[in-house]
Amino acid sequence: MTVRTMSTLFAVLALAADAAAVLLVAGRLVGRRVPLLDDLVEWAADRALIFGAIIATIAMAGSLYYSEIAGFIPCEYCWYQRIAMYPLVVILGFAAVRRDYFSRLPALTLAVIGFGWSVRHWTVQQWPSSGGSCSVTVPCSTPYVEKFGFLTIPWMAGSAFLLIITLLALSALIDRDADVDEATDEREFVANEPRP
Fold first, then answer.
1. Which residue from 10, 67, 136, 162 puts its CA 20 to 30 A from 177's CA?
2. pTM of the predicted protein model
3. Which domain holds residue 113?
């Protein structure tokens, strides 16, 4: 496949990730009134760790494709995003296998940091005068790829980070809601027990 074809594929995957993140957040906000959305959010949140690992793996593979096969030299901001994304493959992969939901916090922290760098990098590419050209040989302000007039490699990485953030946050919120419901049920049970 050509770089152009792969870039189109990655761009479509990024837009799909963006749409999924919006749908999941909307589902969380109005889910109780729309049972199908509520079910979708719970289904995705139950699988947040494995989906996050898959998303991070695809993002890592995409970045390696661009640097190792397409020959694009990563700029400084690209490296910062890689530093945040690559460990997510391992953290979320092991967490998914072990069903270790305590790994959400470090994974969420890395994803938020990576998303911030993606936004910063995309902004520098869109408005080069905003400052932030990393180096003369590999400037952060020059996009190697641009699809649909706005979608560059940092946008693609940001989309992956955003969907991972959304999945992990929803998973944590749903677990918290379940804990609150369980505690409420327990209190009601104790309150309704007959007293001696």
1. 162
2. 0.85
3. 3-176
